[in-house]
Amino acid sequence: MDPISTARYGLMAASRRFEASAVNIATMGVEGEPEVDLAKETVGMIEAKTAFSANLSVIRFAQDMWDSLLQLQSR
Fold first, then answer.
1. Shortest CA distance to 10 belongs to which of 54, 40, 43, 42?
2. In what helix (H) or strand (E) does residue 50 lie, and over which residues does it extend?
3. Is 12 in contact with 67 (CB distance < 8 Å)?
4. Mean pLDDT for the chain?
5. Which whole-number Å values give the CA distances from 4 to 11, 12, 19, 23, 34, in the listed order?
6. Using CA atoms in the order 40, 44, 45, 47, what is the torsion angle rounded to 10 degrees?
7. pLDDT by position in tens, the chain (length 75)
8. What is the predicted pLDDT for the residue at 2?
């Protein structure tokens, strides 16, 4: 299993969740649109931000591991 691919998928999923919440908030109060729970959407955006940061940390860690491996091989 490739951690970078998994983290990339997680980044995309978090981005989609954040965007969906942002769209829901932006259309809040528009006639004909369903009711929007502002607290729920805000929590969703915070969760998406945290997931994005966590997946980004995985990518950074994997990159550091590759860099360390390359340094060992060059010795």
1. 54
2. helix 38-73
3. no
4. 93
5. 10, 12, 22, 28, 37
6. 140
7. 788 899 999 999 999 999 999 999 999 988 888 899 999 999 999 999 999 999 999 999 999 999 999 999 887
8. 87
